[in-house]
Amino acid sequence: MDSQFLPLKLGDIIDTTFRLIGRTIVRNLIIAVVFMGIPVILVTLASRSFYSQIGSEIDIMSKLSSALLLWAGWILFSIASLLAEISICVVIGGELISRTLTVREAIQELFYDKWLYGIGQALLKGLVLAGGAIAFGIVIAIMGVVAAAGSFGAKAVAGLFIVVAFMVFFSFMIFFLIRWAFSLTAVAVEPLGPVAALKKSWNLVKGNWWRTFGILVLLYILTGFAVGIVSTPITFGGMWHVYKNFFSILGSTGGKLSPGQLAQFQRSFGPEIGISIGVSSILSMLITPVFMVVMYFDLRARHNEFPSEETAAGTEPSPATPA
Amino acid sequence: MTTAAVLGFIIVGTIYAYGLGIFGFIAVAVHGIGGSGTASTGQTFVDLLSEKAILTKAPIRLSIMVSEFIFMLVPTLWLIRRWHTRSVAAYIRLHKTGIKEILLAVSASVLFFPVNAFLSDLLLKGLDFPDFLTRINSEIFTSYNSGEFFWVILVVCVTPAICEETFFRGYVQRTFERTLGAKSIIITGILFGLYHMRPINLVSLVILGMIIGFFFYRSKSILPGAAAHFTNNFIAVLTLYRYSDGRPRVPYMSGQFPAYLVIIGIIGTAAVIVLYYRTTRQNFGQNTARQSETAPEAT
Protein backbone atom coordinates (compact mmCIF):
# COMPACT_ATOMS: atom_id res chain seq x y z
CA MET A 1 0.00 0.00 0.00
CA ASP A 2 1.41 3.44 -0.92
CA SER A 3 2.19 5.82 1.87
CA GLN A 4 0.70 9.26 1.86
CA PHE A 5 2.17 11.69 -0.63
CA LEU A 6 1.11 15.32 -0.73
CA PRO A 7 0.97 17.53 -3.83
CA LEU A 8 4.23 19.37 -4.21
CA LYS A 9 5.13 22.89 -5.21
CA LEU A 10 7.84 23.46 -7.80
CA GLY A 11 10.47 24.10 -5.14
CA ASP A 12 9.53 20.90 -3.34
CA ILE A 13 9.75 18.89 -6.57
CA ILE A 14 13.27 20.19 -7.22
CA ASP A 15 14.31 19.73 -3.60
CA THR A 16 12.88 16.19 -3.40
CA THR A 17 14.56 15.32 -6.69
CA PHE A 18 17.95 16.44 -5.48
CA ARG A 19 17.64 14.69 -2.14
CA LEU A 20 16.69 11.47 -3.91
CA ILE A 21 19.57 11.81 -6.36
CA GLY A 22 21.95 12.13 -3.43
CA ARG A 23 20.48 9.09 -1.72
CA THR A 24 20.40 6.80 -4.78
CA ILE A 25 23.26 8.00 -6.96
CA VAL A 26 25.52 4.99 -6.39
CA ARG A 27 22.80 2.45 -7.11
CA ASN A 28 21.59 4.36 -10.15
CA LEU A 29 25.11 4.72 -11.51
CA ILE A 30 25.67 0.97 -11.19
CA ILE A 31 22.39 0.29 -12.99
CA ALA A 32 23.20 2.76 -15.76
CA VAL A 33 26.69 1.34 -16.31
CA VAL A 34 25.49 -2.28 -16.17
CA PHE A 35 22.88 -1.73 -18.86
CA MET A 36 24.47 0.94 -21.00
CA GLY A 37 28.15 0.07 -20.71
CA ILE A 38 28.29 -2.64 -23.34
CA PRO A 39 26.06 -0.86 -25.89
CA VAL A 40 28.25 2.24 -25.52
CA ILE A 41 31.34 0.14 -26.26
CA LEU A 42 29.56 -1.43 -29.23
CA VAL A 43 28.54 1.97 -30.60
CA THR A 44 32.09 3.20 -30.07
CA LEU A 45 33.58 0.33 -32.05
CA ALA A 46 30.92 0.54 -34.74
CA SER A 47 31.43 4.33 -35.06
CA ARG A 48 35.14 3.79 -35.45
CA SER A 49 34.57 1.34 -38.28
CA PHE A 50 31.89 3.48 -39.95
CA TYR A 51 33.67 6.83 -39.88
CA SER A 52 37.02 5.40 -40.91
CA GLN A 53 35.44 4.38 -44.22
CA ILE A 54 34.17 7.81 -45.22
CA GLY A 55 35.41 8.69 -48.69
CA SER A 56 37.55 5.56 -48.85
CA GLU A 57 37.85 3.05 -51.70
CA ILE A 58 36.49 0.13 -49.69
CA ASP A 59 33.75 -1.92 -51.39
CA ILE A 60 30.10 -1.05 -50.83
CA MET A 61 29.33 -4.24 -48.89
CA SER A 62 31.90 -3.38 -46.23
CA LYS A 63 30.47 0.12 -45.91
CA LEU A 64 26.95 -1.25 -45.72
CA SER A 65 27.88 -3.75 -43.01
CA SER A 66 29.59 -0.94 -41.00
CA ALA A 67 26.47 1.19 -41.30
CA LEU A 68 24.25 -1.73 -40.26
CA LEU A 69 26.50 -2.47 -37.28
CA LEU A 70 26.31 1.17 -36.20
CA TRP A 71 22.54 1.17 -36.62
CA ALA A 72 22.25 -2.06 -34.59
CA GLY A 73 24.46 -0.51 -31.93
CA TRP A 74 22.15 2.49 -31.62
CA ILE A 75 19.07 0.25 -31.40
CA LEU A 76 20.73 -1.79 -28.65
CA PHE A 77 21.74 1.46 -26.90
CA SER A 78 18.13 2.71 -27.01
CA ILE A 79 16.79 -0.52 -25.54
CA ALA A 80 19.49 -0.53 -22.86
CA SER A 81 18.63 3.08 -21.94
CA LEU A 82 14.98 2.12 -21.64
CA LEU A 83 15.78 -0.81 -19.35
CA ALA A 84 18.12 1.32 -17.23
CA GLU A 85 15.47 4.01 -16.90
CA ILE A 86 12.83 1.51 -15.79
CA SER A 87 15.18 0.05 -13.16
CA ILE A 88 16.09 3.49 -11.85
CA CYS A 89 12.41 4.45 -11.72
CA VAL A 90 11.80 1.28 -9.67
CA VAL A 91 14.52 2.34 -7.21
CA ILE A 92 13.16 5.89 -6.90
CA GLY A 93 9.56 4.71 -6.61
CA GLY A 94 10.67 2.45 -3.79
CA GLU A 95 12.38 5.35 -1.98
CA LEU A 96 9.21 7.42 -2.15
CA ILE A 97 7.21 4.69 -0.39
CA SER A 98 10.03 4.06 2.11
CA ARG A 99 11.11 0.83 0.48
CA THR A 100 14.86 0.71 -0.11
CA LEU A 101 15.64 -1.53 -3.07
CA THR A 102 19.06 -2.83 -3.94
CA VAL A 103 20.36 -2.89 -7.50
CA ARG A 104 19.68 -6.61 -7.69
CA GLU A 105 16.09 -6.22 -6.48
CA ALA A 106 15.42 -3.43 -8.96
CA ILE A 107 16.78 -5.51 -11.85
CA GLN A 108 14.78 -8.53 -10.71
CA GLU A 109 11.62 -6.43 -10.74
CA LEU A 110 12.57 -5.16 -14.18
CA PHE A 111 12.96 -8.61 -15.69
CA TYR A 112 9.85 -10.03 -14.02
CA ASP A 113 7.55 -8.22 -16.46
CA LYS A 114 8.37 -4.52 -16.56
CA TRP A 115 10.95 -4.83 -19.35
CA LEU A 116 8.33 -6.21 -21.71
CA TYR A 117 5.70 -3.64 -20.75
CA GLY A 118 8.29 -0.88 -21.04
CA ILE A 119 9.24 -1.88 -24.58
CA GLY A 120 5.55 -2.36 -25.35
CA GLN A 121 4.54 1.15 -24.30
CA ALA A 122 7.51 2.62 -26.20
CA LEU A 123 6.50 0.77 -29.37
CA LEU A 124 2.84 1.72 -29.01
CA LYS A 125 3.68 5.36 -28.38
CA GLY A 126 6.15 5.37 -31.27
CA LEU A 127 3.66 3.77 -33.64
CA VAL A 128 0.93 6.26 -32.82
CA LEU A 129 3.22 9.28 -33.13
CA ALA A 130 4.93 7.95 -36.26
CA GLY A 131 1.55 7.12 -37.73
CA GLY A 132 0.39 10.66 -37.10
CA ALA A 133 3.57 12.03 -38.68
CA ILE A 134 3.15 9.83 -41.75
CA ALA A 135 -0.52 10.76 -42.14
CA PHE A 136 0.39 14.42 -41.84
CA GLY A 137 3.18 13.95 -44.39
CA ILE A 138 0.78 12.37 -46.85
CA VAL A 139 -1.69 15.24 -46.47
CA ILE A 140 1.07 17.79 -47.02
CA ALA A 141 2.38 15.89 -50.04
CA ILE A 142 -1.09 15.77 -51.62
CA MET A 143 -1.51 19.49 -51.00
CA GLY A 144 1.86 20.18 -52.51
CA VAL A 145 1.07 18.22 -55.65
CA VAL A 146 -2.35 19.87 -56.02
CA ALA A 147 -0.86 23.33 -55.44
CA ALA A 148 1.93 22.75 -57.97
CA ALA A 149 -0.66 22.13 -60.66
CA GLY A 150 -2.62 25.26 -59.76
CA SER A 151 -2.23 28.99 -60.26
CA PHE A 152 0.13 31.29 -58.38
CA GLY A 153 -2.69 32.21 -55.99
CA ALA A 154 -3.38 28.56 -55.26
CA LYS A 155 0.34 27.95 -54.61
CA ALA A 156 0.45 30.87 -52.16
CA VAL A 157 -2.61 29.67 -50.29
CA ALA A 158 -1.28 26.13 -50.20
CA GLY A 159 2.08 27.37 -48.93
CA LEU A 160 0.43 29.31 -46.13
CA PHE A 161 -1.74 26.32 -45.27
CA ILE A 162 1.32 24.07 -45.11
CA VAL A 163 3.06 26.42 -42.67
CA VAL A 164 -0.02 26.57 -40.44
CA ALA A 165 -0.44 22.80 -40.74
CA PHE A 166 3.16 22.27 -39.59
CA MET A 167 2.56 24.49 -36.56
CA VAL A 168 -0.62 22.61 -35.71
CA PHE A 169 1.13 19.29 -36.23
CA PHE A 170 4.02 20.14 -33.92
CA SER A 171 1.60 21.45 -31.31
CA PHE A 172 -0.28 18.16 -31.40
CA MET A 173 2.96 16.19 -31.18
CA ILE A 174 4.04 18.14 -28.10
CA PHE A 175 0.55 17.75 -26.63
CA PHE A 176 0.64 13.98 -27.01
CA LEU A 177 4.23 13.69 -25.81
CA ILE A 178 3.40 15.51 -22.58
CA ARG A 179 0.17 13.55 -22.04
CA TRP A 180 2.11 10.30 -22.46
CA ALA A 181 5.29 11.53 -20.76
CA PHE A 182 4.73 9.30 -17.72
CA SER A 183 3.78 6.03 -19.39
CA LEU A 184 7.23 4.53 -18.80
CA THR A 185 7.17 5.73 -15.19
CA ALA A 186 3.75 4.12 -14.75
CA VAL A 187 5.10 0.79 -16.01
CA ALA A 188 8.07 1.03 -13.64
CA VAL A 189 6.28 2.19 -10.49
CA GLU A 190 2.97 0.36 -10.78
CA PRO A 191 1.91 -3.05 -12.10
CA LEU A 192 0.50 -1.72 -15.35
CA GLY A 193 0.65 -3.04 -18.90
CA PRO A 194 1.52 -0.86 -21.89
CA VAL A 195 -2.03 0.27 -22.75
CA ALA A 196 -2.97 0.83 -19.10
CA ALA A 197 0.25 2.82 -18.56
CA LEU A 198 -0.50 5.07 -21.52
CA LYS A 199 -4.04 5.62 -20.22
CA LYS A 200 -2.74 6.30 -16.72
CA SER A 201 -0.29 8.91 -17.95
CA TRP A 202 -2.98 10.49 -20.13
CA ASN A 203 -5.38 10.78 -17.19
CA LEU A 204 -2.78 12.01 -14.72
CA VAL A 205 -1.66 14.90 -16.93
CA LYS A 206 -5.29 15.80 -17.68
CA GLY A 207 -6.04 19.12 -16.03
CA ASN A 208 -2.34 19.70 -15.37
CA TRP A 209 -1.00 19.91 -18.92
CA TRP A 210 0.51 23.39 -18.82
CA ARG A 211 1.93 22.91 -15.34
CA THR A 212 3.50 19.59 -16.35
CA PHE A 213 4.86 21.07 -19.59
CA GLY A 214 6.39 24.05 -17.78
CA ILE A 215 7.99 21.99 -15.04
CA LEU A 216 9.36 19.40 -17.46
CA VAL A 217 10.88 22.10 -19.67
CA LEU A 218 12.47 23.75 -16.62
CA LEU A 219 13.83 20.48 -15.22
CA TYR A 220 15.23 19.41 -18.58
CA ILE A 221 16.97 22.78 -18.91
CA LEU A 222 18.48 22.47 -15.42
CA THR A 223 19.51 18.87 -16.16
CA GLY A 224 21.06 19.94 -19.45
CA PHE A 225 23.23 22.50 -17.67
CA ALA A 226 24.29 20.13 -14.91
CA VAL A 227 25.12 17.33 -17.34
CA GLY A 228 26.78 19.78 -19.73
CA ILE A 229 29.30 21.21 -17.31
CA VAL A 230 30.38 17.74 -16.19
CA SER A 231 30.42 16.06 -19.59
CA THR A 232 32.15 18.92 -21.44
CA PRO A 233 35.65 18.27 -20.07
CA ILE A 234 35.17 14.50 -20.22
CA THR A 235 34.04 14.72 -23.84
CA PHE A 236 36.86 17.12 -24.62
CA GLY A 237 39.38 14.70 -23.13
CA GLY A 238 37.83 11.80 -25.01
CA MET A 239 37.92 13.75 -28.26
CA TRP A 240 41.41 15.14 -27.73
CA HIS A 241 42.72 13.20 -30.70
CA VAL A 242 39.96 14.56 -32.97
CA TYR A 243 40.50 18.16 -31.89
CA LYS A 244 44.26 17.85 -32.27
CA ASN A 245 43.86 16.45 -35.77
CA PHE A 246 41.46 19.25 -36.69
CA PHE A 247 43.64 22.04 -35.33
CA SER A 248 46.73 20.56 -36.98
CA ILE A 249 45.02 20.60 -40.36
CA LEU A 250 43.65 24.09 -39.71
CA GLY A 251 47.03 25.41 -38.64
CA SER A 252 48.94 23.92 -41.56
CA THR A 253 46.46 25.23 -44.13
CA GLY A 254 45.90 28.67 -42.59
CA GLY A 255 42.22 27.99 -42.09
CA LYS A 256 41.52 26.57 -45.53
CA LEU A 257 40.30 22.97 -45.65
CA SER A 258 40.20 21.06 -48.90
CA PRO A 259 37.48 18.39 -49.40
CA GLY A 260 40.16 15.72 -49.05
CA GLN A 261 41.33 17.16 -45.74
CA LEU A 262 37.74 17.44 -44.52
CA ALA A 263 37.18 13.77 -45.35
CA GLN A 264 40.44 12.92 -43.56
CA PHE A 265 39.21 14.81 -40.51
CA GLN A 266 35.83 13.04 -40.60
CA ARG A 267 37.58 9.69 -40.77
CA SER A 268 39.28 10.52 -37.45
CA PHE A 269 35.89 10.57 -35.77
CA GLY A 270 34.47 7.43 -34.43
CA PRO A 271 35.19 6.09 -30.98
CA GLU A 272 35.10 9.55 -29.48
CA ILE A 273 31.49 10.07 -30.51
CA GLY A 274 30.46 6.88 -28.76
CA ILE A 275 32.34 7.91 -25.60
CA SER A 276 30.86 11.41 -25.51
CA ILE A 277 27.29 10.24 -26.08
CA GLY A 278 27.74 7.43 -23.57
CA VAL A 279 28.99 9.76 -20.84
CA SER A 280 26.20 12.30 -21.41
CA SER A 281 23.54 9.60 -21.49
CA ILE A 282 24.71 7.95 -18.29
CA LEU A 283 24.88 11.30 -16.49
CA SER A 284 21.37 12.21 -17.70
CA MET A 285 20.13 8.83 -16.51
CA LEU A 286 21.11 9.81 -12.96
CA ILE A 287 18.76 12.79 -12.98
CA THR A 288 15.92 12.49 -15.49
CA PRO A 289 14.13 9.36 -14.18
CA VAL A 290 14.29 10.77 -10.65
CA PHE A 291 12.30 13.90 -11.39
CA MET A 292 9.92 11.96 -13.62
CA VAL A 293 9.03 9.65 -10.71
CA VAL A 294 8.71 12.59 -8.30
CA MET A 295 6.38 14.36 -10.72
CA TYR A 296 4.46 11.12 -11.24
CA PHE A 297 3.80 10.85 -7.52
CA ASP A 298 2.90 14.55 -7.40
CA LEU A 299 0.34 14.09 -10.17
CA ARG A 300 -1.11 11.06 -8.42
CA ALA A 301 -1.42 13.09 -5.23
CA ARG A 302 -3.20 15.85 -7.17
CA HIS A 303 -5.67 13.21 -8.34
CA ASN A 304 -6.22 12.09 -4.73
CA GLU A 305 -4.73 8.66 -5.23
CA PHE A 306 -3.20 8.65 -1.77
CA PRO A 307 -5.13 8.24 1.47
CA SER A 308 -5.63 11.61 3.16
CA GLU A 309 -4.19 11.52 6.64
CA GLU A 310 -3.02 14.31 8.87
CA THR A 311 0.43 12.92 9.33
CA ALA A 312 2.70 12.14 6.39
CA ALA A 313 4.07 8.84 7.74
CA GLY A 314 6.91 7.30 5.79
CA THR A 315 6.96 9.91 3.06
CA GLU A 316 9.60 12.30 1.79
CA PRO A 317 9.21 15.57 3.73
CA SER A 318 8.32 18.56 1.61
CA PRO A 319 9.98 21.61 3.13
CA ALA A 320 9.15 25.02 1.73
CA THR A 321 12.83 25.77 1.25
CA PRO A 322 15.98 23.70 1.35
CA ALA A 323 17.67 23.90 4.75
CA MET B 1 23.19 22.59 3.13
CA THR B 2 24.95 20.49 0.50
CA THR B 3 21.70 20.22 -1.44
CA ALA B 4 21.14 23.96 -1.18
CA ALA B 5 24.64 24.68 -2.46
CA VAL B 6 24.38 22.27 -5.41
CA LEU B 7 20.85 23.38 -6.22
CA GLY B 8 21.81 27.04 -5.99
CA PHE B 9 24.81 26.46 -8.23
CA ILE B 10 22.71 24.70 -10.89
CA ILE B 11 19.84 27.19 -10.77
CA VAL B 12 22.00 30.32 -10.95
CA GLY B 13 24.39 28.69 -13.42
CA THR B 14 21.50 27.79 -15.72
CA ILE B 15 19.92 31.24 -15.47
CA TYR B 16 23.26 32.85 -16.28
CA ALA B 17 24.14 30.48 -19.14
CA TYR B 18 20.81 30.89 -20.91
CA GLY B 19 20.47 34.55 -20.01
CA LEU B 20 23.90 35.35 -21.42
CA GLY B 21 23.14 33.35 -24.55
CA ILE B 22 19.83 35.10 -25.22
CA PHE B 23 21.06 38.56 -24.23
CA GLY B 24 24.24 38.12 -26.25
CA PHE B 25 22.28 37.02 -29.30
CA ILE B 26 19.98 40.05 -29.03
CA ALA B 27 22.92 42.39 -28.44
CA VAL B 28 24.79 41.12 -31.49
CA ALA B 29 21.63 41.20 -33.60
CA VAL B 30 20.80 44.77 -32.57
CA HIS B 31 24.39 45.90 -33.01
CA GLY B 32 24.66 44.12 -36.34
CA ILE B 33 27.76 42.19 -37.27
CA GLY B 34 28.29 43.99 -40.54
CA GLY B 35 29.48 42.66 -43.86
CA SER B 36 27.76 40.18 -46.10
CA GLY B 37 28.72 37.13 -44.07
CA THR B 38 30.82 35.85 -46.95
CA ALA B 39 34.43 36.59 -47.76
CA SER B 40 35.18 39.23 -50.32
CA THR B 41 37.74 38.68 -53.06
CA GLY B 42 41.17 37.93 -51.62
CA GLN B 43 39.81 37.59 -48.09
CA THR B 44 40.62 34.27 -46.42
CA PHE B 45 38.56 32.38 -43.88
CA VAL B 46 40.92 33.59 -41.15
CA ASP B 47 40.42 37.22 -42.22
CA LEU B 48 36.66 36.73 -42.14
CA LEU B 49 36.77 35.21 -38.65
CA SER B 50 39.01 38.03 -37.38
CA GLU B 51 36.72 40.65 -38.89
CA LYS B 52 33.64 39.14 -37.23
CA ALA B 53 35.45 38.80 -33.90
CA ILE B 54 36.30 42.51 -33.96
CA LEU B 55 32.82 43.54 -35.05
CA THR B 56 31.03 41.54 -32.36
CA LYS B 57 33.28 42.22 -29.39
CA ALA B 58 31.48 45.40 -28.26
CA PRO B 59 28.01 43.83 -27.93
CA ILE B 60 29.49 40.64 -26.44
CA ARG B 61 31.38 42.60 -23.78
CA LEU B 62 28.24 44.53 -22.90
CA SER B 63 26.18 41.35 -22.72
CA ILE B 64 28.77 39.66 -20.47
CA MET B 65 28.79 42.57 -18.04
CA VAL B 66 25.03 43.05 -17.93
CA SER B 67 24.39 39.30 -17.74
CA GLU B 68 26.74 38.78 -14.81
CA PHE B 69 24.92 41.45 -12.79
CA ILE B 70 21.37 40.57 -13.83
CA PHE B 71 21.57 36.79 -14.28
CA MET B 72 24.23 35.90 -11.74
CA LEU B 73 24.45 38.48 -8.98
CA VAL B 74 20.74 39.23 -8.61
CA PRO B 75 19.60 35.56 -8.49
CA THR B 76 22.39 34.78 -6.00
CA LEU B 77 21.32 37.57 -3.66
CA TRP B 78 17.69 36.52 -4.06
CA LEU B 79 18.53 32.89 -3.22
CA ILE B 80 20.38 33.93 -0.07
CA ARG B 81 17.44 36.01 1.11
CA ARG B 82 14.92 33.33 0.17
CA TRP B 83 16.73 30.30 1.53
CA HIS B 84 19.09 31.46 4.22
CA THR B 85 18.96 34.91 5.76
CA ARG B 86 18.02 38.53 5.18
CA SER B 87 21.53 39.52 6.30
CA VAL B 88 22.96 38.98 2.84
CA ALA B 89 26.13 41.02 3.41
CA ALA B 90 26.92 39.01 6.52
CA TYR B 91 26.23 35.73 4.73
CA ILE B 92 28.62 36.44 1.87
CA ARG B 93 31.10 37.88 4.40
CA LEU B 94 31.22 41.33 2.94
CA HIS B 95 33.15 43.03 5.71
CA LYS B 96 36.53 44.65 6.24
CA THR B 97 39.61 42.59 6.67
CA GLY B 98 43.28 43.26 7.23
CA ILE B 99 45.15 45.05 4.45
CA LYS B 100 47.91 42.46 4.83
CA GLU B 101 45.53 39.68 3.79
CA ILE B 102 44.42 41.60 0.71
CA LEU B 103 48.02 42.34 -0.27
CA LEU B 104 48.97 38.70 0.21
CA ALA B 105 46.03 37.59 -1.92
CA VAL B 106 47.04 40.01 -4.67
CA SER B 107 50.66 38.79 -4.49
CA ALA B 108 49.56 35.18 -4.80
CA SER B 109 47.54 36.10 -7.86
CA VAL B 110 50.52 37.84 -9.46
CA LEU B 111 52.86 34.96 -8.67
CA PHE B 112 50.44 32.31 -9.89
CA PHE B 113 49.79 34.01 -13.25
CA PRO B 114 52.89 32.58 -15.03
CA VAL B 115 51.96 29.12 -13.77
CA ASN B 116 48.41 29.64 -15.04
CA ALA B 117 49.74 30.77 -18.43
CA PHE B 118 52.20 27.87 -18.57
CA LEU B 119 49.45 25.29 -17.98
CA SER B 120 47.26 26.82 -20.69
CA ASP B 121 50.17 27.00 -23.14
CA LEU B 122 51.01 23.37 -22.45
CA LEU B 123 47.53 22.25 -23.40
CA LEU B 124 47.36 24.54 -26.42
CA LYS B 125 50.65 23.14 -27.70
CA GLY B 126 49.43 19.62 -27.07
CA LEU B 127 46.41 20.37 -29.25
CA ASP B 128 48.44 22.08 -32.02
CA PHE B 129 46.10 25.03 -31.53
CA PRO B 130 46.92 27.51 -34.33
CA ASP B 131 48.15 30.97 -33.31
CA PHE B 132 45.59 32.73 -35.48
CA LEU B 133 42.76 31.03 -33.58
CA THR B 134 44.32 32.06 -30.25
CA ARG B 135 44.41 35.66 -31.44
CA ILE B 136 40.80 35.54 -32.65
CA ASN B 137 39.72 33.85 -29.42
CA SER B 138 41.34 36.52 -27.26
CA GLU B 139 40.11 39.45 -29.37
CA ILE B 140 37.27 40.08 -26.93
CA PHE B 141 39.81 40.72 -24.14
CA THR B 142 42.17 42.76 -26.34
CA SER B 143 42.22 46.56 -26.19
CA TYR B 144 43.92 49.03 -28.51
CA ASN B 145 43.49 52.35 -26.70
CA SER B 146 43.12 53.58 -23.13
CA GLY B 147 39.35 54.03 -23.34
CA GLU B 148 38.87 50.46 -24.53
CA PHE B 149 41.39 49.25 -21.93
CA PHE B 150 39.37 50.70 -19.05
CA TRP B 151 36.17 49.34 -20.55
CA VAL B 152 37.68 45.85 -20.77
CA ILE B 153 38.91 46.16 -17.15
CA LEU B 154 35.37 46.98 -16.09
CA VAL B 155 33.94 43.98 -17.99
CA VAL B 156 36.65 41.38 -17.41
CA CYS B 157 38.13 42.41 -14.06
CA VAL B 158 35.66 44.39 -11.94
CA THR B 159 32.48 42.55 -12.94
CA PRO B 160 33.70 38.99 -12.20
CA ALA B 161 35.36 40.19 -8.97
CA ILE B 162 31.94 41.31 -7.78
CA CYS B 163 29.51 38.89 -9.41
CA GLU B 164 31.44 35.63 -9.65
CA GLU B 165 32.95 36.02 -6.21
CA THR B 166 29.55 36.70 -4.67
CA PHE B 167 28.18 33.60 -6.41
CA PHE B 168 31.04 31.14 -6.02
CA ARG B 169 32.60 32.10 -2.74
CA GLY B 170 29.87 34.19 -1.15
CA TYR B 171 27.14 31.68 -1.82
CA VAL B 172 28.32 28.27 -3.07
CA GLN B 173 31.44 27.86 -0.91
CA ARG B 174 29.82 29.58 2.07
CA THR B 175 26.89 27.16 1.90
CA PHE B 176 29.07 24.09 1.43
CA GLU B 177 31.22 25.25 4.33
CA ARG B 178 28.35 24.87 6.78
CA THR B 179 28.49 21.09 6.44
CA LEU B 180 31.80 20.31 4.76
CA GLY B 181 34.16 22.80 6.33
CA ALA B 182 37.51 23.15 4.50
CA LYS B 183 36.50 20.59 1.84
CA SER B 184 34.25 23.32 0.46
CA ILE B 185 37.41 24.94 -0.98
CA ILE B 186 38.10 21.93 -3.21
CA ILE B 187 34.50 21.39 -4.33
CA THR B 188 33.92 25.06 -5.12
CA GLY B 189 37.25 25.25 -6.95
CA ILE B 190 36.19 22.35 -9.17
CA LEU B 191 32.78 23.89 -9.81
CA PHE B 192 34.47 27.22 -10.61
CA GLY B 193 36.63 25.48 -13.21
CA LEU B 194 33.76 23.46 -14.72
CA TYR B 195 31.42 26.43 -14.87
CA HIS B 196 33.69 28.39 -17.25
CA MET B 197 33.24 25.59 -19.85
CA ARG B 198 36.78 26.10 -21.13
CA PRO B 199 38.36 22.63 -21.09
CA ILE B 200 41.76 23.98 -22.08
CA ASN B 201 41.85 26.21 -18.99
CA LEU B 202 40.08 23.73 -16.70
CA VAL B 203 43.10 22.72 -14.63
CA SER B 204 44.39 26.27 -14.11
CA LEU B 205 40.89 27.58 -13.34
CA VAL B 206 40.30 24.85 -10.76
CA ILE B 207 43.62 25.64 -9.04
CA LEU B 208 42.91 29.38 -9.15
CA GLY B 209 39.43 28.76 -7.78
CA MET B 210 40.89 26.76 -4.89
CA ILE B 211 43.42 29.47 -4.10
CA ILE B 212 40.74 32.15 -4.03
CA GLY B 213 38.53 29.84 -2.01
CA PHE B 214 41.34 29.33 0.46
CA PHE B 215 41.58 33.11 0.99
CA PHE B 216 37.83 33.31 1.53
CA TYR B 217 37.87 30.43 4.00
CA ARG B 218 40.81 31.66 6.05
CA SER B 219 39.89 35.35 6.13
CA LYS B 220 36.17 34.79 6.56
CA SER B 221 35.90 37.74 4.19
CA ILE B 222 35.09 37.97 0.50
CA LEU B 223 37.43 40.90 -0.13
CA PRO B 224 40.83 39.13 -0.44
CA GLY B 225 39.41 36.63 -2.93
CA ALA B 226 37.76 39.39 -4.93
CA ALA B 227 41.05 41.29 -5.00
CA ALA B 228 42.90 38.15 -6.17
CA HIS B 229 40.31 37.49 -8.89
CA PHE B 230 40.52 41.11 -10.06
CA THR B 231 44.32 40.96 -10.13
CA ASN B 232 44.47 37.72 -12.12
CA ASN B 233 42.10 39.04 -14.75
CA PHE B 234 43.82 42.44 -14.80
CA ILE B 235 47.17 40.87 -15.63
CA ALA B 236 45.52 38.87 -18.42
CA VAL B 237 43.97 42.03 -19.86
CA LEU B 238 47.29 43.86 -19.51
CA THR B 239 49.09 41.20 -21.56
CA LEU B 240 46.52 41.78 -24.32
CA TYR B 241 46.78 45.57 -24.29
CA ARG B 242 48.13 46.49 -27.73
CA TYR B 243 48.96 49.40 -29.99
CA SER B 244 46.74 49.93 -33.01
CA ASP B 245 49.25 48.05 -35.19
CA GLY B 246 48.96 44.96 -32.96
CA ARG B 247 52.25 45.32 -31.08
CA PRO B 248 51.90 44.55 -27.36
CA ARG B 249 52.20 47.54 -25.06
CA VAL B 250 53.75 45.39 -22.35
CA PRO B 251 56.09 43.22 -24.47
CA TYR B 252 57.74 41.17 -21.77
CA MET B 253 54.36 39.95 -20.53
CA SER B 254 52.83 39.07 -23.86
CA GLY B 255 54.93 36.14 -24.92
CA GLN B 256 55.58 32.84 -23.24
CA PHE B 257 56.81 33.08 -19.68
CA PRO B 258 60.30 31.59 -19.20
CA ALA B 259 60.63 28.41 -17.17
CA TYR B 260 62.39 30.10 -14.24
CA LEU B 261 59.46 32.48 -13.84
CA VAL B 262 57.06 29.54 -13.72
CA ILE B 263 59.17 27.85 -11.03
CA ILE B 264 59.38 31.10 -9.06
CA GLY B 265 55.63 31.38 -9.47
CA ILE B 266 55.00 27.92 -8.01
CA ILE B 267 57.34 28.43 -5.07
CA GLY B 268 56.17 32.00 -4.49
CA THR B 269 52.49 31.07 -4.55
CA ALA B 270 53.09 28.23 -2.11
CA ALA B 271 55.03 30.56 0.19
CA VAL B 272 52.28 33.16 0.12
CA ILE B 273 49.67 30.52 0.93
CA VAL B 274 51.69 29.37 3.94
CA LEU B 275 52.15 32.97 5.04
CA TYR B 276 48.44 33.63 4.56
CA TYR B 277 47.63 30.59 6.67
CA ARG B 278 49.83 31.87 9.50
CA THR B 279 48.50 35.40 9.24
CA THR B 280 44.90 34.28 9.40
CA ARG B 281 45.59 31.73 12.11
CA GLN B 282 45.91 34.64 14.44
CA ASN B 283 42.76 36.24 13.07
CA PHE B 284 40.83 33.02 12.53
CA GLY B 285 39.60 32.54 16.06
CA GLN B 286 38.63 36.25 16.36
CA ASN B 287 36.82 36.19 12.99
CA THR B 288 34.70 33.13 13.75
CA ALA B 289 33.75 34.54 17.13
CA ARG B 290 32.68 37.80 15.48
CA GLN B 291 30.71 35.91 12.81
CA SER B 292 28.67 33.90 15.26
CA GLU B 293 27.72 37.06 17.16
CA THR B 294 26.74 39.25 14.25
CA ALA B 295 25.33 36.98 11.56
CA PRO B 296 22.05 35.31 12.53
CA GLU B 297 21.26 32.83 9.82
CA ALA B 298 18.07 31.00 8.96
CA THR B 299 18.13 27.19 9.05
Can you offer a commentary on this structure?
The complex is a heterodimer of chains A (323) and B (299). Chain A is mainly alpha-helical. Helices cover 80% and strands 0% of the residues of chain A. Chain A is built from eleven helices and no strands. Chain A has helices at residues 10-52, 60-96, 103-149, 152-179, 183-189, 194-205, 209-238, 240-253, 259-267, 271-285, 288-302. In chain A, helix 1 (10-52) packs antiparallel against helix 2 (60-96) and helix 5 crosses helix 6 (194-205). The radius of gyration of chain A is 24 Å and the shape is globular. By secondary structure, chain B is mainly alpha-helical. Helix content of chain B is 77%, strand content 0%. Chain B has eleven helices and no strands. In chain B, helix 8 (202-219) runs parallel beside helix 11. Chain B is globular, with a radius of gyration of 20 Å. Mean pLDDT of chain B is 86; it is low at 287-299. Classes of the chains: A mainly alpha (323), B mainly alpha (299). Chain A binds chain B through residues 14-15, 18-19, 22, 221-222, 224-226, 228-230, 232-233, 236-237, 240, 243-244, 247-248, 250-251, 254-256, 321-323, and chain B through 1-4, 6-7, 10-11, 13-14, 17-18, 44-46, 49, 82-83, 126-133, 194-195, 197, 199, 202, 299.
